[in-house]
Amino acid sequence: MKTAHKLFSALLLLAVISGGIFSCNKPADGSLPPYKLSYGDSILYLKPSGNNIIYPSEYRSGTYTGFPEGIEIDENTGAINLDNSETGLRYRITHTAPDGTKTEIKVVLSGITFTDHFYRLATGDSIAPPVYNATTANILPLAGSNFDEGGFANGSGCSVRTDNGKINLAESIRNGLFGPTPVNDDKKEIDIKYRINDGSGKSLNKLKVKLYWYNTMADVPQYLWDILNDRSSQGVFLRGAAPGNSEITNALARPRPPCVIIIAN
Known about the structure:
Elements: H1 2-25, E1 43-44, E2 53-54, E3 63-67, E4 80-81, E5 89-96, E6 102-109, E7 112-113, E8 117-120, E9 127-128, E10 131-132, E11 146-147, H2 152-155, E12 159-160, E13 167-168, H3 169-174, E14 186-195, E15 205-214, H4 222-231, E16 259-263
Parallel strand pairs: 1-6, 8-16, 15-16
Antiparallel strand pairs: 2-4, 3-5, 5-6, 7-10, 9-13, 11-14, 12-13, 14-15
């Protein structure tokens, strides 16, 4: 009986201590602890299963929003629909609680994009490389990957390397992308479908790229400068895009389609 009594006392003491520990972590007013907004990972991949709606690890009442444009997020649940979002970009997800408290995180929807950039053919600057997972320093997995599936881009004259996703702009001009004789402000919007051998399990992914032609920099019209200034000359939430600036943002940014601007001279 003494042994049983000692055991009961020890268990009771442990329960009291544990209760004290837990009560220390709980706010005195009974409110919830600070919201740790998370989607389980900072990079979200498309899945071959087609189950491409990703929910927050923990739901809180309030409103969910995403920035910049291009992400489809349910404002009530925070669910991100990857199938209907523009991948290859970094987004800021914000939760606003009923009392106005805001919680933010950044997530990358895995895929490729291209930087907004002026390519000068006269200087040999004619290759547009893809950016993987919104960071220029990332290495794009090439083994087992495929770019321009279905050949739509190459069929239209846009020379996309199927093994690495790079666009050869000089070759695209020779292929007649803008016709036999390009003129100022010629433009083409190209769809590129691709599969990457990464966490997506080679799920079919896609993006649009807009290519422009101008004879000289002086021929670039104001409306295009406005587009670039509206988002930033190197993209939105694109890391490593500019020396000394690891992340460029613009409150009015519309990141897609990326602008590949070809300058002849």
